[in-house]
Amino acid sequence: xxxSRFKNxxxxxxxxxxxxxxxxxxxxxxxxxxxxxxxxxxLDSSATVYGLWLNAKGRVLADSLVLKGEGDAYYLFxxxxxxSNLLKHLSSHIxxxxxxxxxxxxxxxxxxxxxxxxxxxxxxxxxDEVDSVGSDKDAExxxxxxFIAADQGFFIYPLPDSLAGAYVCCFTDPLSYEKxxxxxxxxxxxxxxxNARHFHRIASGFPLIPKEIGPNDLAAEGGLxxxxxxxxxxxxxxxxxxxxxxxxxxxxxxxxxxxxEGSVDDFLEHLPYTIVCSDLALGEIRSFYTDESAANxxxxxxxxxxxxxDQLTTGTEIGKACLKSICxxxxxxx
Length: 334
Hints:
The protein is of the alpha+beta class. About 20% of the residues lie in helices and about 30% in strands. The longest helix is centred in the middle third of the chain and has 14 residues, at about 175-185.
């Protein structure tokens, strides 16, 4: 397994969604809407489940990680899918269900490695201080278990797209967040840039939702089936479309990562940017990230029509940039 970029670094970000779902029908309601199987949350207190929120046509509206909280409470967290989108979608499907939705106000979020997590937990008086961070004594602590302290204003859980040993700290309490920031500044190496965070995510095979895969796209086009979609749990919104495509068909578009050299001006103003070659629309660039190791180079995540994939060759001009290489989203590494 590749080493996490967060082992000696940290990343600060704004959580897009933090939603608390309660009520005697909360589990059944979420299970009927969520693309992945939540059953394990009832059996294993250390479980977390990543998945998608689809519409009836199987299009991707949002993603989230689901955690089991206190009593009948469940928590939904998403780094990129807006809470307004998620709440609107869920609210529209509550008919006679005894379910309550609450958007939590998050003051800040961090991603750190396991050693950094231990020190944050110490600063918040969750665990006692140990003799040396990173020693064998650390192994006594089960970092896989999500720590939910809603009444104290913080949540700690494994990063869904972690390559190895990274954790999310999400804070609704300003004082706890300040303590965590101070602690992290004292021990961590350089803070990761937004670019580096996205490279970590892409290398783990997680598209940015709904920017790279969104309301006009299928989960299979982002390589999310069956990883983020259960094919066995039974009915959920969009299930029939997803299952039919998986078993009987093939997605007509797929995500690719393009390495480009040149100017990004066209993309800045027109995302998603349509890639046109010989008067054919080959696909769309959905996002791009600077290659910090080379001047005037960047990586673009693009949804490409499979029948036109072979027309994207080295030297192809895309806007004011030139294609240097192309690989499938799943094959990308840095």
